[in-house]
Amino acid sequence: MKKLIHTLFLLLIATGGFAEEIVLSGIYQGKNLYVMNPFAADGNGFCITGITVNGVATSDEINASAFEIDLTKHNLTKGDNVSVVIKHKSGCTPKVINPEVLNAQSTFTVTTIKIDKNNKLAFTTNNESGSLPFIVEQFRWNKWIKVATIEGDGKPGTHTYTTDVNLHSGYNRFRVKQIDYTRKPRYGKELKHRSMQAEVTYSYVKPFTEIKFSAETMYEIYSNTGAIIDKGVGSKVNVASLPAGDYFLNYDTKTETFKKK
After folding, report:
1. Where would you tag: which of 43, 50, 89, 193 has the fewest CB atoms within 10 A of its CB?
2. How many Å apart are CA 57 and CA 222, to the nearest integer?
3. CA contacts within 13 A on the Cβ side of 243
4. CA-CA distance, 245 to 259, in Å (whole number)?
5. Architecture of domain 109-195
6. 24 and 32 Cβ atoms separated by less than 8 Å
7. Distance separating alpha carbons of residues 239 and 254, to the nearest angstrom
């Protein structure tokens, strides 16, 4: 056993010390990786000893101070998961110049978007390149609000997504967006849809313990300082526990104020 340990120690010395790894995981976007490869700490050759892509060793020329990891050789399609492992000697650290090319990117376009008779919104996309959530927004009360989140497929081709939505009276506006690693939102085309449902009204139960709506509606309650107190979808809201004060009530397409005594 001692002889085996001694032999392994000699092998480690001969190969420049303990091997280390850099692992990059992400989504293939059709672009290659570029690597800066310093000399080994002992001056014997370069730092990197090997590279695998999804478990398969690459044929890239790694005995250079800078080189390209050619991902096109690995039968990858845009949107595929990819894992790159860079093995290197201890005492030195290679640098990947452009690791962001493995981040999922928002490149989608919305080809159709519509609402059916059951208040289900459907939109069709193409040109996705990485799975990212689609955020469905509705314009209400002079602002865009999130009403649904749907995980995107992320692969090339055409994909259709659906979600239930709550319409207000009159014209409704919807849009779809994604936010990728750049933090910049990408928007699809906007939908305008006219609802024939009647305007919603509200009343309250004295001594102001409950708000009742004439039909189910999306609502928000804010304090007079602008803090959100409650929100949801329903035909009534229990406000018995609200402290005395002035409040704003958003519902249907309207904004009202009420006082809790």
Report:
1. 43
2. 58
3. 5
4. 6
5. Sandwich (2.60)
6. no
7. 19
| Tens of pLDDT, residues 86-136 | 999 999 999 999 999 999 999 999 999 999 999 999 999 999 988 999 999
Within 8 A by CB and 6+ apart from 81, the residues are 25, 26, 27, 28, 54
| pLDDT tops 90 at residue 3 | no
Residues in Cβ contact with 9 at an 8 Å cutoff, skipping those fewer than 6 apart: none
Q: Residue 226, class by beta-carbon neighbours within 10 Å (0-12 exposed, 13-18 middle, 19+ buried)?
A: exposed
Max Cα–Cα distance, the chain, nearest Å: 89
CB 245 within 8 A of CB 259: yes
Choose among 160, 36, 51, 133: nearest CA to 93: 36
Burial class (CB in 10 A: 0-12, 13-18, 19+), 56: exposed
**Per-residue pLDDT tens for 221-257?**
999 999 999 999 999 999 999 999 999 999 999 999 9
Q: What is the mean pLDDT of the chain?
A: 90
**The amino acid at 214:** S
Is the overall model pTM greater than 0.85, yes or no? no
CA distance 52 to 173: 48
Q: What is the pLDDT of residues 140-178, one digit of tens each?
A: 999 999 999 999 999 889 999 999 999 999 999 999 999
Domain positions in the chain are 2-102, 109-195, 202-260
